[in-house]
Amino acid sequence: QVQLVQSGAEVKKPGASVKVSCKASGYTFTNYGLNWVRQAPGQGLEWMGWISAYNGDTSYEQKFQGRVTMTTDTSTGTAYMELRSLRSDDTAVYYCARGKLHLEHDYWGRGTLVTVSS
Amino acid sequence: SYELTQPPSVSVSPGQTASITCSGDKLGDKYACWYQQKPGQSPLLVIYQDTKRPSGIPERFSGSNSGNTATLTISGTQALDEADYYCQAWDTSTGVFGGGTKLTVL
Predict the structure, then answer these.
(1) What is the pLDDT of residues B49-70, one digit of tens each?
(2) Which residues on A lie below 8 Å from B101 (Cβ)?
(3) What pLDDT is recorded for position A31?
(4) Contact criterion met (CB below 8 Å) for B4 and B23
């Protein structure tokens, strides 16, 4: 069965960086991409970007351009999302979700809570 | 930037039909999908490519998409359908979510 296992909760100070991992199993990793979606406390879903696990192509939401980097490691079937220059409004649960570009997010990880606080 | 608009809340009585709309410019020209999210849980795909149901999603969930509006319909709504629902589409290569609709079954 398809599983996306995310790394544990993080607490960071403003200005720091965070790197969240998402380990995939139960399917051929390079046949799909990974989306990253975040959800601030009590708020809706916000799409951050997508990466192809096949060739590393990326598409980032414009508001995160220059501050986010998405990568994959095909040897371990793991995707990573790094967000830099953290601010308090980056406090959110960060989800990875499997999907092909322009199509649905069909499987989701359980989320990683990132708290940004001084 | 492209926007999807949903009503903040919808109420329905058990056994009745709930309809949740999602509006966006020429949304009917794109694929729309819908996610259900219950408190403390990850989103769950319930409708994709406008009308398709993933395996395991009850038949009471259906979708449509035409013009500027996509609609999620839940027939014979049950108490366990109470959740937040989000529509999603793609604008070129950028994913866009609607603001979400809280479905209350009362």
Answers:
(1) 999 999 999 999 999 999 999 9
(2) none
(3) 97
(4) yes
